[in-house]
Amino acid sequence: MDEREFERLAAAALEGVERALEANEIDCERKPGGILELEFDDGSKIIVNRHGAAREIWVAARSGGFHFRWDGSAWRDTRGGAELFAALSKLVSEQLGRGVRLLG
């Protein structure tokens, strides 16, 4: 995938994440450079950002760091194969203390 295609796909994914969070009444702040920052009542955060050099979307959460690469149809975790929105649903649920299902 070339840089232009990556930027298009990553921007669409981040916009989808932002919409899914808003639909679940979860605040996030968009930072410069394609970064979404979610802050929870307990002060913990989840950071979602695009990483152009690796052509990945990276997620940093209390439980660890995750890298998602486009497989032609979805963003998949490079280690476990989880889809981005499914993984974020789990991570947000853990940090929020209640079940959340984010749909992309």
Q: What's the CATH class label?
A: Alpha Beta
pLDDT below 50 for ≥5 consecutive residues: which ranges?
none
Class from helix and strand fractions: alpha+beta
- Oligomer, anyone? single chain
Q: Calculate Rg over CA atoms.
A: 13 Å
Percent of residues in beta strands: 25-35%
Total number of helices: 2
Average of pLDDT: 92
* Helix-strand pattern: HEEEEEEH
The count of DSSP E runs of length 2 or more, i.e. the number of strands, is: 6
CATH fold group: Metal Transport, Frataxin, Chain A
Q: Report the end-to-end length measured between terminal Cα atoms.
A: 21 Å
Amount of helix: 25-40%
Structural domain count: 1
Estimate the global geometry from the Cα principal axes: globular
CATH architecture annotation name: 2-Layer Sandwich
- Spatial strand order of the main sheet: 1-2-3-4-5-6
Per CATH, the superfamily is: Frataxin/CyaY
